[in-house]
Design a protein that fits this description.
alpha/beta; eight-stranded mixed sheet; ThiF_NAD_FAD-bd; NEDD8-activating enzyme E1 regulatory subunit
Amino acid sequence: MSSPAPKSPELSDKSKKYDRQIRLWGEHGQTLLETATVCLVNVTAVGCETAKGLVLPGIGGFTVADGSTVKEEDLGNNFFLDSSYLGKSKALACMQLLQELNPDVNGDYVEESADFILANRPNFFDSFDLVIASNLNEQTLLLLAERLWEVNVPLIYCRSLGMLGTIRLQIREHCIVEAHPDNRQFDLRLEHPFDALREHLDGTEVTNKVPWLLVLHKYLNVWQRQREDGAQTPRNYKEKNQLRETIRKEMTADEENYEEAIKAVNTAFGAGQVPKSLKAIFEDDACEQLNKKSNVFWIMAKALKHFVIHENEGHLPLPGVLPDMTANTDSYIALQHIYRQQALQDADQVYHKCQEYLKQLALPADSIDERSVRLICREAAELAVIRGTRIADEYEKSSRLLTLVEDNELQGNLTAYNFALRAYERFLSECGNIPGECIVEQDIGRLKSIAAKMLSDLGMHATISDDVLHEICRYGGAELHAVSAFIGGCAAQEVIKIITKQYKPIDNTFIYNAITTESVTLKL
């Protein structure tokens, strides 16, 4: 009678609760999320939907800032306000109903508007990891954005109006270690095997039970000997076909590892080189000129650069990750062990260089731990840095904006709608009421003149069509819950990317039209 299978280790309550998302961003990502605090400025449907997307996965804490009270018109599009709160604080109502979604999350509220906070205690925002704001007038938006830029707090600004929605990310610098590319190439070093791998490959007999990597190595050597030009790896389709045929000729039966080796010819070579994006990081001033205020990312990047140039003949540290392969267990584990050990050795060298730099900068040795270095070494090929722009820059003349104009028209309806929404916000600041709320035709004319002046001030010789401006006025400031839910869900994803430093966030503006279900991302 066979013995029962060993029991899986018991999951903690937290792991059970957040199991699906931990599979996406790992325990370390979840820890960063659970220690983060965000501020929600302005209780709107889109703002509450964004907050919902953070409370459910377990954000550490959130604070709602809004000085207004709940009115009848607020109840139709916001699930986080109900009739029992009529006449009471919006901030309190939103905070209490959001917190019901996840008791592990700390909620707080402030019965003050963004204008009041900025005028009386602007440092209120300094302690948050990120601020989310929505549907503000132009003046308040620019004051808030400028304050957050000064203190280096990221801002995600959401708009939801009728069938339109936008997200704008303002962030000074964002360093991404785990980009999670869709098509990751495994770094196998077949063309430049390290000593332990070469010894293993040369000393292991190739049978139908060994991983395909050994099969490919054996016939790569055969292919190399046949070449008169001294090529080490196939560089084009014709050469790859020749290598495939070399393997296929030696097959005696339906051998899966041989089939896998033939398929792997396309992807098994070329990894381990420094890509252009990483070269740009290595050449960045922040990497070259470290100081006490340097982000640990740049200290690790400089140590990584030293390792690549001076200790590893121009190659990246070995990630130590192998793809699945059909093989017997012992031979696969043996190969896996060799890769993992080399990866640990490479990361150890980078770690010691990090410690040298920390000592030179008189920074604590525990500023960088071994786990962080192993992670950056494993992900070295996909490291990325995003440097954002101020929202205020969009309101000044810039040559970047000229690319959005073609034949005196704004390129594409989505771009036109984005500028129309900005004209709407300027209307709120200058006129003090919502366009289209009372007299639609009169407001269209006022909105049109505001939009024309705004584009002229930006140096853009273009117009926004009357149809677009009429659409903005027709909405009368109304939020549709379905659109707000979509934009809020997208915005929450961007917040999580920034907090966990995983996946690449938008850079920097996302525009959505629910009428045509079109979207576009622009860098403004």
